[in-house]
Amino acid sequence: MVIKYKKPSPFLSPFVAHFWEKHSPENQQIGYETETVLPENYLNLTFSLGSAYFRSLEEKSPFAALNSPQLETLHTGHNFYKHQANNHIFGIKFLPGGLYPFVHLDFMDLINVSLEMDQIFGAEANLLAEELYQLPDFEGRIERVERFLSKQLIERRLQKFRFIQAGTQLLERQHPDAGIASLAEELNTNYKTLSRAFYEVIGISPKHFAQIQRFEHALELLFLKPEWSCTEIGYHLGYYDQAHFIREFKRFAHQTPSAYRESTGKVETVEQHKDFQQFLSLEHLLHYEVKVY
Fold first, then answer.
1. Model pTM greater than 0.85?
2. Are residues 123 and 12 located together in one domain of the fold?
3. Other CB atoms closer than 10 Å to residue 132's CB: what's the count?
4. Neighbours of 154 (CB within 10 A)
5. DSSP code string of 198-213
6. What domain of life is recorded for the organism (predicted)?
7. Which element (helix H / strand E) includes 219?
8. Which DSSP state fits 9?
């Protein structure tokens, strides 16, 4: 099975992390029963171009068939997927808050859900899906989606997006102990205003965002830095002690850092896994050939 990736054009790079496409040929057996995708601060627009695939959230809901264009919102818990032969899924992964300037949505109540894309873009979403199905290759589909998104940009929503983007970038750089109050001060605002903007643009509080962000960094280091011990990684990421690191990691991963590291031990470490966050899905690491365009 193959998964393809490509970075966006300069115009979309402030908003989109990358485009992706996964394909399971009709005559190929799926090498796993269920794919588990760990929590992340990103969301996806997805188009099913082949047979239906199935999604469940945190094992609290039955698997639902997905064969229409979907907005899969930021998920703070595990997403579970079942794939089958002739699955062909094209997706756009947006940076935190990156979809906000393209839609008339407040994301406060839109986490851990899937929405039919025509609820957001109207009939254009289904027309776009039909065009993507007709196009012969990955890069052609990317070009079509980039044209579509360029026409959807809502200029008046850019200011709030840029404010939140500045906040997420500061969180990326600042020491974890600095706290959200320090972030608000850096942005010349107060905690209440900052928190309200995070909820509106991303869907969760700045504190929750920072916790998931640090969890993602832990996954990355556990996978890409095998020479570092779990204790060293916890210290590097600013956890109080090893017990704090293990407790926070288990909250999101449902396993210890050492257990996660052991599960990825058979995977060759390559830079593409970092660039496209492959470490969020063990099934991606173990069962898919990566092609970067």
1. yes
2. yes
3. 19
4. 12
5. HHHHTSS-HHHHHHHH
6. Bacteria
7. helix 206-224
8. P
Beta strands at 2-6 and 289-292: parallel, antiparallel or unpaired: parallel
Q: What angle do CA 206, 208, 211 make, to 5 degrees?
A: 110
- CA–CA distance, 292 with 279 (Å, rounded to integer): 16
Q: Mutual orientation of helices 206-224 and 242-253 as an angle, nearest 10°?
A: 100
Distance CA 145, CA 47 (A): 11
Q: Residue 213: which CATH number?
A: 1.10.10.60
Contact 35, 83 (CB under 8 A): yes
| C-alpha atoms less than 13 angstroms from C-alpha of 212 in its C-beta half-sphere | 20
**What's 228-280 look like in SS3?**
CCHHHHHHHCCCCCHHHHHHHHHHHHCCCHHHHHHHCCCCCCCHHHHHCCHHH
Domain count, the chain: 2
The two structure tokens encoding residue 181? 């109050």
Per-residue confidence of the chain (293 residues) as pLDDT tens digits? 889 999 999 999 999 999 999 998 888 888 899 999 999 999 999 999 999 999 998 766 789 999 899 999 999 999 999 999 899 999 999 999 999 999 999 998 899 988 999 999 998 998 999 999 999 999 999 999 999 999 999 999 999 999 999 999 999 887 666 678 889 999 999 999 999 999 999 999 999 999 999 999 999 999 888 899 999 999 999 888 899 999 999 999 999 999 999 988 767 655 556 678 777 888 888 888 889 99
Residue 127 dihedral angles phi and psi, to the nearest 5°: -65, -40
